Amino acid sequence: MKVLIATEKPFAAAAVDGIRKEVEAAGHTLALLEKYTEKTQLLDAVKDADALIIRSDKADADVFNAAKNLKIVVRAGAGYDNIDLAAATAHNVVAENTPGQNSNAVAELVLGLLVYAVRNFYNGKSGSELKGKKLGILAFGNVGRNVARIAKGFGMEVYAYDAFCPKNVIEEAGVKAVDSQEALFENCDIVSLHIPATPETKQSINYALVNKLHKGGILINTARKEVINEPELIKLLGEREDLKFITDIKPEADADFAKFEGRYFTTPKKMGAQTAEANINAGIAAAKQIKAFFANGDTKFQVNK
Ligand SMILES: NC(=O)c1ccc[n+]([C@@H]2O[C@H](COP(=O)([O-])OP(=O)(O)OC[C@H]3O[C@@H](n4cnc5c(N)ncnc54)[C@H](O)[C@@H]3O)[C@@H](O)[C@H]2O)c1
Q1: To test ligand 1's pocket by mutation, which of 103, 140, 194, 281 has the most ligand atoms within 8 angstroms of CB?
Q2: 127 C-alpha vs ligand 1 centroid, how far in Å?
Q3: Which segments of 67-102 does DSSP mark as H helices, in order?
Q4: pLDDT for 226-253, tens place per residue?
Q5: Is the CB of 170 under 6 A from ligand 1?
Q6: Is 165's C-beta closer than 6 angstroms to any atom of ligand 1?
Q7: pTM of the model
Q8: pLDDT tens digits for 116-148?
Q9: How far apart, in Å, are the Cα atoms of 171 and each of 1, 129, 166, 196, 279?
Q10: I need a labelling partner for 183 at 20 to 30 A (CA). Which of 7, 49, 199, 292 fits?
Q11: How far apart are the CA of 222 and the centre of ligand 1, in A?
Q12: CA 211 to centroid of chain Cα atoms
């Protein structure tokens, strides 16, 4: 089988080496399309590929139309909104992600950004500490669980709400489970967002919700920008000078948020999963999933079921 890695933004070399080892050990061949600049290059490269590994690359209907032999596409990463799932299904292609492989990287960034925020972006003025502060984790998935683990090390009091994760799973991790996202914001000094972008969550982080945060509250987003109602958050930041907003996903209205100097910070580009370890883990997980799929039809991580 021919496995194609198609990455506009390439994997680390060590990740490609690891993928190659996995793929070739199983008797498959590996092809590489890196740093492509035109969609036509991708459409050409996928023509005879049986499996495709991508990062943030778009796998849309054109890709599935061009890839006549394609049986599986794996997004090396957690979010898979860059894959047109309906088109994949229509072409009988199994679409997978590699959940959990970058969650520690994202979680470490959350705590790093929070230290930066409570120390006033290192502006020379005395700040505050995370120890003893109440942290609310919105969604107790792979990233949320890692944030909880690290935050407990900082001595934070950790709360979580997840619409689907049973309360006892949250409590067993030493975290206080609350009944709603409203309760999470009401109870906490800091809320960290780890929800996916779905029809229910899009625009759900709005004025009324964030306004429930304690005085001096911080909202931190390392999930997806679509979950935030930007106009409402801008209005709230204008009214409440005690609030800070920290994000790893530059908002559409970055220039408007930037007016809240000293209370707003965005990473220049999404940095959460940008570590050598996450890169290697996700790439190798993708290769292993493809191997298992061809060896015994394993579709454990399929997202278009
Ligand atoms: N900043 C980055 O570079 C980066 C990297 C990885 C992931 N992410 C983003 O972080 C988020 C979390 O990733 P993850 O790997 O933890 O995902 P995950 O699938 O492991 O966890 C998501 C959790 O959200 C819960 N959930 C779904 N809908 C909900 C709702 N309406 N209300 C409350 N909870 C709900 C699910 O039950 C699940 O526990 C995603 O948005 C992902 O795209 C960002």
Answers
A1: 194
A2: 30
A3: 85-90
A4: 999 999 999 999 999 999 999 999 999 9
A5: no
A6: yes
A7: 0.87
A8: 999 999 999 999 999 999 999 999 999 999 999
A9: 45, 25, 9, 22, 31
A10: 199
A11: 9
A12: 25
Residue 38 CA, ligand 1 centroid: distance in Å: 31
The DSSP letter of residue 12 is: P
Q: Is 283 in the pocket of ligand 1 (CB under 6 A)?
A: no
CA-to-CA distance for 272 and 214, rounded, in angstroms? 26
Q: What are phi and psi of 148, to 5 degrees?
A: -60, -45
> Which domains are assigned to the chain?
2-101+275-296 (3.40.50.720), 124-261 (3.40.50.720)
**Structure-block tokens of residue 124:** 């020379």
Determine the distance separating the centroid of ligand 1 and the alpha carbon of 27, expressed in angstroms. 35
Spell out a b/e string for 152-178, using b for 16 or more CB atoms within 10 Å of the CB, else e: eebebbbbbbbeebebeebeebebbbb
Radius of gyration of the chain (CA): 21
pLDDT tens profile 253-286:
999 999 999 999 999 999 999 999 999 999 999 9
